[in-house]
């Protein structure tokens, strides 16, 4: 497929369009793996909807912590393969690069290696989650006004973990036989953020072909 | 400790090692010359009585007559003569090896003679002699005066204890071909050891007393290894081993009307397979790079690992496509670290993979997790309370039935939790105890079954703390990383020869002997502590808690952790034995020339049975001490046990790994997310091998600042409960509140009371004020707690 300039600059076309996969090719195998998921009988799209009577902040809070825990472990399963050498910058493919910025040490967006970025990310989320002013645990204490914005930021950054894992480390996931798990976790995550519009659609670009 | 090359260890855990080995470990190599001394003492006497014939040729009646004569010979005043007779009897118990051709014969006659000796009352006779030796203050004081104690100082005691040990061990072990009178002999012996007569104490208590006396420094010449071995076997004999325990537990659950156990834990553990130990990421990367340089790209891994998804009951639609690939890829799979990575998942597939091990009967169980999940009553209560708090706003205490107002998913959760509810015998016992405390009068005297365990506990109760401290003191001295000769005790007294070695060969031999000595001490202490804990727990949970608390207060937890803070692999594979010097081999075969090379080569066993046994016992003890106890779990965290325990995972033995993983599981939520992220292999092993507790947030929970002030309170409450139990069951009610009041007029009036002077003048006024005008408040009786 010839690369024309229009395609390169077209943000909608991060991957080359592949609508047909020939069975027997390696691409077909990868495609099958990408589709593999845990058939637990749950309709993930339905499951993320806010149940009647439930408070939306509660619902979001529980999911944010849950996704954080799960993504933490998913990253842990292949953290041996994600090193300073293999991933000197935190990237999502050739086109996307993520830089770390926070309120303390990194006031300016800084290029960090993927493991460093992950570390900073997990610590930062952990701090927020443990902060009673942001994620109150006692009954009756209300959520702060900017709660959903905080969650948006957390989930946006967590999404980048998926991006990095899928684009750079999916073969490790396959070697472990964990693709169905990661895919299911991703699907759940994706439906959740779409349901409540918690992540800007531009951030979702790198994996735009994924959730099908 | 870098790359791992430990093969799967073929290890059958049980009550003890093989019969011959257990007998062999009674002796140290320095004692080997005494075997011929025993023989000489016997033959000198035997030939005066029976000329030209051998013991094996005598018939039953003649053998009995000879033994009776020997036993009479024990009643002389002359200590040396007594010792000679005792040695002759020991030779009989050792199997009259001078007349035997092979090891099998020796063991056979040892057993035969042990039964004979018991039937003629030898044990009782030796018990008296033992008591005399223990009280022999002359021996104690001469030992205390010596600068260096050796074998020679415990000669008499060693002979006595050896005879007793041989009798206990030979009679304890059941064999199919045993004639019925031997079977009844066994029962009689067991009863004699368990149930004391004439208000004596059970025999085990005498041995406990020897241990404390040794540790107090008053009797440094006591041969501790033999005392501990005998104590262990007596407990094993009188209380019963692991299979007996399991059967008792099943029976007790039936009696209490509890549902049967979800699985047979002994069987499940036998069928579990070891997981590949966690590799360090550095060497992983290096190996990976090496492989990649060799091959250019990673070869496809067979997709057999998809089976691990079966845990989720998911059939992988792609599996069939790849099924054939497995065989082709076999020669491509290398045995280095890369292969190691996959082993974890492969081991989860139980019957499929062919093994090279000799076949051992394994119970096959369906793919998936080996243990059924369990839920405690209080887990259900907590879950409901949290839900009620959230959805309704108030709580109902321990009610687990009222689900009104809670959303449907909660109803379903409670249903699932209840399906897996497990009530332990301990729960029932604790509840019973609460009721007995509340109503001491109306529920009457508790009916306590007089089992050997109960009798032992009652006898041990008074000095139990001292026994535990003494045992741990010796265990510490015998640990591989400790000094065996501390300021207070010297556990090598009964292995060191009178004359220290001069040649290199002799030194090597003594070094091996000393290490072996220590290993056997560790083996017996670890086994007997585990037995006590398990039996007491079944008998009554507070008996178990009492022993546990004293072990914990005596620093058992750091002791066990310190024990594991060594090169575990080299401990498990230690070769501290010289098989040609082992009994009974050394008695029937000629001694070959010992060389330094043959000593270093040791035996050709894959691992050291007794050391692996000890490690598993210690891990089990540590689990029992810390399970469900927040304060003690935090001790594990505070002592930084996680890296120590992780190193122990290198030993590829399923049972040992299981108990390590259990200890790691209870700590995970205090170790932080960073630890979990870097130890996913261990997390996976925990998930696969350790029983799940529903609602247990071990993998995700994050209690870094667990409330430290709760620890003391928890232990104090427990201590109060234990003391209440002990005093209720065992204290004589001297000054209890419930002693009957003396209300017989005669005796009350007959008592002399000192009344103050002015009372004579003012008693009428006093009566008016204090007695007649005070209304009786009957309602207070109802309020009294």
What does the model show?
The complex is a heterodimer of chains A (212) and B (785). In chain A, β1 (91-92) and β2 form a beta hairpin. Chain A is globular. Chain A has 212 residues and is an all-alpha fold. The two termini of chain A are 23 Å apart. Chain A has helices spanning 5-9, 26-35, 44-47, 56-77, 114-130, 147-176, 179-195; strands spanning 91-92, 96-97. The model of chain A is unreliable at 1-21 (pLDDT under 50). Chain A has one domain (55-207): Up-down Bundle (Butyryl-CoA Dehydrogenase, subunit A, domain 3), CATH 1.20.140. Chain B has a domain at 377-421. Chain B contains 38 helices and no strands. Chain B has helices at 19-24, 32-49, 60-73, 79-93, 103-119, 122-134, 137-145, 155-172, 180-194, 203-215, 224-239, 242-255, 265-271, 281-295, 319-322, 325-329, 337-347, 377-391, 408-419, 425-438, 452-460, 464-478, 504-539, 541-553, 556-564, 568-572, 585-588, 596-601, 609-626, 630-638, 641-648, 654-667, 672-678, 680-689, 710-730, 745-750, 759-772, 779-783. Chain B is globular. The model of chain B is unreliable at 280-366 (pLDDT under 50). Chains A and B meet through α4, α5 and α6 of A and α14 and α33 of B. Chain B: Residues 294-303 have a biased composition (Basic residues). Chain B: This is STRP2 protein. Chain B: It comes from Thinocorus orbignyianus.
């Amino acid at each position: 497929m010839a690369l024309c300039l229009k395609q390169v600059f077209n943000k909608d076309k991060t991957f080359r369009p592949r609508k047909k996969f020939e069975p027997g090719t390696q691409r077909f195998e990868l495609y099958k793996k990408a589709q593999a998921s845990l058939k637990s009988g749950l309709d993930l799209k339905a499951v993320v909807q806010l149940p009647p009577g439930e408070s939306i902040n509660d619902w979001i809070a529980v999911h944010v912590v849950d996704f954080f825990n799960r993504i933490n472990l998913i990253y842990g399963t292949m953290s041996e393969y994600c090193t300073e050498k293999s991933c000197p910058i935190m990237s999502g493919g050739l086109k996307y690069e993520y830089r770390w910025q926070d309120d303390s040490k990194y006031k300016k967006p800084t290029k960090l290696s993927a493991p460093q970025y992950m570390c900073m990310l997990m610590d930062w989320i952990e701090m927020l989650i443990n902060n009673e002013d942001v994620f109150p645990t006692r009954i009756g204490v209300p959520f702060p006004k900017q709660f959903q914005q905080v969650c948006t930021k957390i989930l946006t950054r967590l999404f980048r973990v998926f991006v990095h894992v899928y684009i750079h480390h999916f073969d490790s996931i396959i070697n472990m036989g964990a693709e169905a798990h990661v895919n299911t976790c991703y699907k759940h995550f994706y439906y959740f953020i779409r349901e409540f519009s918690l992540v800007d659609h531009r951030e979702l670009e790198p994996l735009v072909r994924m959730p099908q | 400790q870098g790359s791992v090359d430990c093969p799967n260890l073929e290890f059958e855990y049980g009550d003890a090692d093989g019969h011959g080995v257990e007998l062999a470990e009674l002796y140290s190599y320095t004692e080997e010359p005494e075997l011929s001394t025993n023989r000489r003492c016997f033959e000198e006497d035997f030939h005066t009585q029976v000329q030209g014939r051998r013991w094996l040729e005598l018939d039953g009646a003649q053998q009995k007559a000879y033994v009776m004569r020997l036993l009479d010979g024990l009643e002389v005043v002359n200590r040396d003569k007594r010792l000679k007779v005792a040695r002759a009897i020991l030779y009989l118990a050792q199997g009259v090896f001078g007349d035997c051709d092979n090891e099998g014969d020796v063991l056979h006659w040892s057993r035969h003679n042990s039964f004979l000796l018991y039937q003629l009352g030898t044990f009782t006779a030796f018990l008296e002699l033992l008591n005399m030796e223990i009280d022999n203050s002359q021996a104690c004081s001469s030992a205390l005066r010596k600068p260096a104690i050796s074998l020679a100082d415990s000669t008499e005691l060693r002979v006595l204890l050896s005879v007793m040990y041989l009798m206990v061990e030979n009679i304890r072990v059941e064999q199919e071909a045993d004639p019925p009178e031997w079977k009844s002999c066994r029962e009689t012996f067991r009863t004699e050891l368990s149930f004391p007569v004439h208000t004596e104490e059970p025999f085990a208590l005498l041995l406990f007393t020897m241990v404390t006396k040794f540790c107090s420094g008053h009797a440094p010449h006591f041969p501790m290894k033999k005392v501990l071995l005998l104590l262990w076997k007596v407990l094993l004999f009188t209380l019963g081993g692991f299979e007996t325990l399991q059967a008792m537990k099943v029976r007790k659950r039936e009696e209490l009307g509890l549902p049967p156990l979800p699985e047979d834990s002994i069987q499940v553990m036998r069928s579990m397979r070891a997981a590949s130990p966690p590799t360090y990421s550095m060497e992983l990367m290096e190996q990976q790079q090496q492989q990649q340089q060799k091959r250019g790209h990673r070869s496809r891994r067979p997709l057999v690992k998809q089976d691990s998804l079966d845990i989720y009951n998911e059939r992988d639609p792609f599996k069939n496509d790849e099924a054939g690939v497995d065989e082709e890829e076999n020669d491509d799979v290398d045995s280095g670290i890369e292969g190691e990575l996959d082993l974890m998942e492969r081991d989860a597939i139980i019957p499929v993979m062919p093994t090279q091990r000799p076949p051992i009967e394994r119970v096959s169980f369906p793919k998936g997790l080996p243990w059924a999940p369990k839920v405690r009553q209080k887990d259900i209560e907590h879950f409901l309370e949290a839900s009620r708090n959230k959805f309704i706003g108030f709580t109902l205490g321990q009610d687990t039935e009222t689900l009104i107002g809670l959303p449907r998913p909660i109803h379903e959760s409670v249903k699932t939790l209840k399906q897996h509810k497990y009530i332990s015998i301990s729960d029932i016992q604790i509840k019973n105890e609460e009721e007995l405390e509340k109503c001491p009068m109306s529920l009457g005297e508790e009916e306590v079954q007089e089992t050997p365990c109960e009798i032992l506990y009652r006898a041990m109760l008074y000095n139990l703390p001292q026994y535990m401290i003494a045992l741990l003191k010796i265990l510490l001295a015998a640990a591989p990383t400790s000094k065996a000769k501390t300021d207070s005790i010297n556990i090598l007294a009964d292995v060191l020869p009178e004359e220290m070695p001069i040649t290199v060969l002799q030194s090597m031999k003594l070094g091996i002997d000393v290490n072996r000595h220590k290993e056997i001490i560790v083996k017996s202490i670890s086994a007997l502590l585990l037995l006590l804990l398990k039996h007491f727990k079944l008998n009554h949970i507070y008996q178990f808690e009492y022993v546990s608390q004293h072990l914990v207060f005596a620093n058992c937890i750091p002791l066990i952790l310190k024990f594991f803070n060594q090169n575990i692999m080299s401990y498990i594979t230690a070769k501290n034995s010289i098989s040609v010097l082992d009994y009974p081999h050394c008695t029937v075969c000629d001694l070959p020339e010992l060389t330094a090379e043959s000593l270093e080569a040791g035996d050709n066993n894959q691992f050291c049975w007794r050391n692996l046994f000890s490690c598993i016992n210690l891990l089990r003890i540590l689990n029992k001490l810390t399970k469900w106890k927040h304060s003690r779990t935090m001790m594990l965290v505070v002592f930084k046990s996680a890296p120590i325990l992780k190193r122990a995972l290198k030993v590829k033995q399923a049972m040992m790994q299981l108990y390590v993983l259990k200890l790691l599981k209870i700590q995970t939520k205090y170790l932080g997310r960073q630890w979990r992220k870097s130890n996913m292999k261990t997390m996976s092993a925990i998930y696969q091998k350790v029983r799940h507790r529903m609602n247990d947030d071990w993998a995700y929970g994050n209690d870094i600042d667990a409330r430290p002030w709760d620890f003391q309170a928890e232990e104090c409450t427990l201590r109060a409960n234990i003391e209440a139990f002990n005093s209720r069951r065992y204290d004589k009610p001297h000054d209890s509140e419930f002693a009957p009041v003396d209300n017989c007029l005669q005796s009350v009036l007959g008592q002399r009371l000192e009344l103050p002077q002015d009372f004579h003048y003012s008693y009428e006024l006093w009566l008016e004020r204090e007695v007649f005008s005070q209304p009786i408040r009957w309602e207070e009786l109802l309020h009294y707690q």
